[in-house]
Amino acid sequence: MSYSDCSDWSQCQACGECLMNCPVMRMGLEEAKETIRRLIRGEAAPRVFEQCTLCFNCNNYCPVEGLRPHELIQQRMLESRACSPEYIKYFLNGMPAPVIWHDVYSEMSPAEKAILLKWSEIPAPADELLWIGCVGRMSCRDIEQSKILGQLPKYGPPDLCCGELAYRMGSWQAYADTVERTLQRFADLSIKRLVCYCGSCYYFFSNILPNVYGKKLPFELISLYQWLWEKVAKHELVLEKPLTFTAAVSESCYVSELGPEFWEPLRKLYQAAGASLLELEHHGYDGMTCGTMSMVRKGNFTASFFSMYKEQRKKYQEVKAAGTNQMAVNCPGCFLMPSFTNAFHGIRIRYMLEELLQAYGDSITRPMAENFRLMRKWVAKRMPRLLLHKGTREFPRIPVAEPIYEYGIKSEDMPEVDFRMNCRSKITA
Length: 429
Ligand code: SF4
Ligand code: SF4
Description:
The protein is α/β, with parallel strands linked by helices.
């Protein structure tokens, strides 16, 4: 199976709606019709391969149920490339070390590692459970001590993942292996509703998993933003530190497929917390990306970086045109990747989740910006060697059944925990 196998392309009417409505290319009718025909036939589509930002928006404009032009484009883009750059593996949870998630978790304090260890156990049956993915685990101490999230049992073993990075960076096999691992472990959960700390996990579990991969989780799903809005709407949360700024909302690319059910609570929450919001020219079904996925188009790091920067510049221009220099983002990726370039444009990026939790009374002792400094440090350290490698067409398989990491507890007296991750090798405690 591959990305484009989720759709029956014989159903495509070559109406061109997908590419005519693309917020990046806005093709004319004839060009759009010809391009989609070429893509279906497996032929090169140079303009798409050069400009598509892999934002998912075109999926919303297709009038045929079940067709996903984004997935067709992603598949053809990958086929047009001789191999995938080696550095991509560094970002995929489950690949043989070095992997960025091992690197950043390994620098945590013993107390934080103890929390991750606790989150690796299947919790007691409950109505709701908070799922914490790769990025959220870096904030484990604040999540564990959160007043707002205190009522939710937590689950987030460091070797499980929603598969977003594997999927989006172009390894279908790594995505399939990752979700199979996660599904196997999720099968032991006895819950009614899974609350996803990260919007990307929510999108991948609620949309890509059933609509592309063809499997469904056996419980309801909700994003933490929606969960928080439920609480605020019922007056179950008290505003302690109102937000007093004006910002333009920059939605992540998956928001267009999640629709108003996701983007309205985002805005209502921010406004209820006191912030004034401005809209970008492109938003909702027409949103533009933070540029990160444009990197997938290119086979080398420098070209990828400039592809990303080109999209980020457009975003910053829209923020300024909206009348502010503050950009509020809901996705960790939209916070991390623009943080390489925002200062050059005088743009301040605000991570909505962190600000909302603080507004309703939580303390953030390890802000996402600090986590990302750590990530950037590791990327700078690992990247030179990774860039020396020639890419590969196939990535190593991720084991589905066996745990990838092992943890040895030195003493029963927490928090003295020896938390070691050693991909695919045995550890003697
Ligand atoms: S994925 Fe986004 S940029 Fe690419 S064709 Fe679709 S709408 Fe356009
Ligand atoms: S993928 Fe959908 S929107 Fe695009 S040309 Fe085919 S039928 Fe039309």
